[in-house]
Amino acid sequence: MASIENLKSFDPFADTGDDDTQPTNYIHIRIQQRNGRKTLTTVQGLPEEYDLKKILKVLKKDFACNGNIVKDDELGQVIQLQGDQRVKVMEFLTSQLALQKKNIKIHGF
Questions:
Q1: Residue 58 lies in a domain
Q2: Structural domains counted in the chain
Q3: I need a labelling partner for 88 at 20 to 30 A (CA). Which of 10, 45, 48, 64 fits?
Q4: Does residue 32 lie in a domain region?
């Protein structure tokens, strides 16, 4: 009598432990209208291991704009930059900090 080897129970939907789907900790790049033509670009949700002060210093120098870090109760630390810097910030985060594009969301307009 031949033994049947294919009857091992395998659940294709079982949790295998190798989770490559991260919890939705996206980096949000938003634009806020100020007065007239003036705008603010905000960056929130950057991972904790990055030094925001150093990132801000580089961004300000590269983009020739002013900026600061705002402490928010719900959102944590948020980087604010003068002007519409959304695309530039996205390129900086993907090239310099090696963050994945799929984890970065650009909002506005």
A1: yes
A2: 1
A3: 48
A4: yes
Q: What is the CA radius of gyration of the chain?
A: 21
What three-state secondary structure class fits 30?
strand
3-state secondary structure 32-43: EECCCCCEEEEE
Residue 2 lies in a domain: no
Q: What is the pTM of this model?
A: 0.74
Taking residue 61's Cβ as centre, other Cβ atoms within 10 Å add up to 9
| Domain CATH code at residue 84 | 3.30.780.10
Q: How far apart are CA 85 and CA 6, in angstroms?
A: 57
For the beta carbon of residue 96, count every other beta carbon within 10 angstroms: 12
- Mean pLDDT by runs of 10 across the 109 residues of the chain is 63 61 76 94 91 93 95 90 94 90 89
In a domain, 16, yes or no: no
Residue range of the domain that includes 85: 27-107
In three-state secondary structure terms, 61 is helix
